[in-house]
Design goal:
It is built from 10 helices and 11 strands. It has about 300 residues and is an alpha/beta fold. The strands form 2 sheets. The chain has a 7-stranded mixed beta sheet, with helices on both faces. A 4-stranded mixed beta sheet has the order 4-3-9-8, with helices on one face. The structure holds pantoate. Pantoate binds near residues 98 and 256.
Length: about 300
């Protein structure tokens, strides 16, 4: 029976584990040593799902298993180096994180041909302050797909390993949409994070604060610079479309604190390098100036100094 191997002790990984537990999918969890890992998840129907104890030593994974990495981009390299010796059967990896840059890290550790899927989710989950419980705060969906590669064929998403890995995740935590162009979906999400995350962290406000008139100008500047950089990398977005998406997510999640707001509040490392920092580094490679994204990076880094 194919098994989901879930790395880390975060809210989304716990949610996937709880879905696997509820829906009869075999799973194992691998938190970092000494981290507090949720033991239960409060499901969205108030059901309390008890999770299996963490598996301390990963055994060699089977080819039809799936290794899910719901980690921050800055944690990925270390995790993949630690896992690489258990991956000789080449089970598929699923990278699930805010921001971009994870695929580059994974291919640098495992090689261009390693079977990798990229995913983004809009399910809401929250790790409670005691660290021992997580709560499913909002039903969403997960989009998954193959990263763009030079030799990619139109029908690659029909490859058996791609279908099987996404079906396994869909059984655990539906709905999972296997999409043709995950890269575009990830960039769309990146634009949302480039605006909501730094503005909420810097101004100590909930996501709904981003809707205020006083942020019109900066929202627009961030979306405009984003669209210019994206176009240089073959992705065409209209500034209006990006701003509309940002406003829609800010209003749907108006009462929530963004992950970057939470990271700052809890004195944790932020994902700014994989979000606005990713845009700055792509812009630099093309000699484009993105002063508003650069300002966000400097100011968020200033908060954690
Ligand atoms: O990082 C986050 O908090 C989320 O991705 C989002 C979409 C901004 C909602 O809070």
């Amino acid at each position: 029976m194919a098994k989901l191997h879930i790395v880390g002790a975060g809210a989304i990984g716990s949610l996937i584990a709880a879905g696997a537990e509820k829906h009869g999918v075999a799973y194992a969890r691998y938190p970092k040593p000494h981290s507090t890992i949720p033991e239960t998840v409060k499901w969205n129907d108030s059901d309390i799902v008890s999770l299996s104890a963490p598996a301390s030593t990963p055994s060699c994974l089977c080819q039809d298993d799936v290794l899910v990495l719901p980690l921050k981009v800055y944690q990925l390299k270390h995790a993949l180096l630690a896992w690489s010796s258990y991956l000789e059967n080449r089970p598929p990896l699923v990278l699930l994180h805010n921001g971009l840059g994870g695929d580059e890290i994974a291919t640098s550790v495992l090689g261009e041909n390693y079977p990798i899927l990229l995913a983004t989710t809009s399910h809401g989950a929250l790790k409670e302050p005691d660290g021992k419980t997580a709560t499913y705060t909002g039903l969403g969906k997960t989009q998954i797909g193959l990263p763009r590669r030079g030799d990619m064929a139109r029908n690659d998403k029909h490859l058996p390993w791609v279908q099987e890995a996404s079906a396994l995740l869909n059984t655990a935590l539906p709905p999972v949409d296997l999409v043709d162009d995950i890269t575009r979906a990830l960039w769309q999400k990146l634009a949302i994070n480039c605006v909501i995350n730094p503005l909420t962290a810097l101004n100590n406000m909930r996501n709904g604060g981003v809707l205020l008139k006083e942020y019109d100008e900066i929202r627009h500047a961030l979306c405009r610079e984003f669209a210019i950089v994206a176009e240089q990398y073959g992705l065409v977005f209209s500034v209006q479309e990006l701003e509309k998406n940002v406003l829609s997510v800010a209003s749907l999640t108006a009462q929530n604190y963004s992950s970057m707001h939470q990271d700052i509040a809890m004195d944790r490392h932020t994902e700014i390098d994989a979000i606005n920092g990713y845009i700055v580094s792509l812009a630099n490679k093309k000699g484009i100036s993105v002063p508003t994204h650069a300002l966000m990076v400097d100011r968020v880094k200033g908060l954690v100094l």
